[in-house]
């Protein structure tokens, strides 16, 4: 293993671990405050509208929240769309390089992932979140941001399907679309069950679910 690879793995292990305190009510309140403040921005700047909130489980339980990715502000946007449900987001390791980003990710209970190689520490943390019972795991399965006006999802990483099957939880899909750089629209779909499906089938179901919601969001006024 090269020195650079070893260093990257070390950083992922360091920032992929979440303490038990990050699942307590103080952190829930902290995440709520962060999200609430950004909600004002989404509403005033982009006229945010959310569709499909009837698909949000009334009694929140562990699941994978999966959406397409158009901006670094997608995690708080998803939390706003889902009415501030507690979600621990999987974020690329590059977002932990600066102090302020680490502080932000700590407040959002985010944990690091190496997009080139899935580390065991990331897997353990994701499953720990799901086993906690009150938090969901937020993942953007495209593996990177796409153009804001792109109303399609051509590919998703299989990791989201792996976490859903391993954790034995369903997937809640969302589609995010920014119309003309001015109007932000989010559509929430129905839960996608993970039971009884192989990895490839589940991954494709998730991709198609997000793609359909993205297309729907692009048609909203």
Give an overview in words:
With 221 residues, the protein is of the alpha/beta class. The chain has a single domain, classed as Glycerol-3-phosphate (1)-acyltransferase. It is 43% helix and 16% strand. It contains seven helices and seven strands. The protein has a seven-stranded mixed β-sheet, sandwiched between helices. Strand 6 and strand 7 form a beta hairpin. It is globular. The termini are far apart.
What key attributes describe this structure?
single chain, 221 residues, alpha/beta, Glycerol-3-phosphate (1)-acyltransferase, seven-stranded mixed sheet, 7 helices, 7 strands, globular
Produce the secondary structure layout.
Layout: H1 3-15, H2 25-46, E1 49-51, E2 64-67, H3 74-81, E3 87-92, H4 99-107, E4 111-113, H5 120-132, E5 136-139, H6 159-167, E6 171-179, E7 183-188, H7 199-218
Parallel strand pairs: 1-7, 2-5, 2-6, 3-4, 3-5
Antiparallel strand pairs: 6-7
Helix pairs in contact: 2-3, 6-7
Percent of residues in beta strands?
15-25%
Total individual domains: 1
Largest beta-sheet characterization? 7 strands, mixed
Element pattern in H and E: HHEEHEHEHEHEEH
- Strand neighbour order, sheet with most strands: 1-7-6-2-5-3-4
Overall spatial form: globular
Helix content: 40-55%
Number of helices: 7
Number of strands: 7
CATH topology, by name, is: Glycerol-3-phosphate (1)-acyltransferase
Rg, rounded, reads 16 Å
């Amino acid at each position: 293993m090269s020195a650079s690879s070893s260093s990257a793995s070390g950083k992922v292990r360091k920032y992929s671990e979440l303490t038990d305190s990050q699942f307590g009510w103080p952190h829930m309140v902290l995440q709520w405050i962060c999200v609430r403040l950004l909600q004002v921005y989404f509403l005033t700047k982009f006229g945010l509208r959310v569709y499909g909130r009837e698909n949000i489980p009334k009694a929140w339980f562990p699941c994978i929240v999966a959406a397409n990715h158009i901006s670094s502000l997608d995690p708080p946007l998803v939390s706003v769309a889902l009415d501030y449900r507690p979600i621990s987001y999987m974020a690329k390791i590059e977002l932990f390089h600066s102090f302020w980003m680490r502080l932000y990710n700590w407040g959002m209970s985010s944990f690091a992932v190496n997009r080139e190689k899935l580390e065991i520490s990331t897997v353990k943390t994701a499953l720990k979140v799901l086993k906690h019972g009150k938090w969901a795991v937020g993942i953007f399965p495209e593996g990177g941001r796409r153009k804001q006006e792109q109303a399609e999802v051509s590919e998703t990483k299989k990791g989201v399907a792996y976490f859903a099957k391993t954790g034995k939880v369903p997937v809640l899909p969302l589609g995010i679309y920014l119309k003309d750089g001015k109007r932000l629209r989010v559509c929430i779909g129905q839960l996608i069950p993970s039971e009884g499906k192989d990895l490839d089938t589940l991954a494709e179901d998730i991709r198609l679910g997000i793609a359909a919601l993205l297309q729907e969001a692009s048609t909203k006024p």
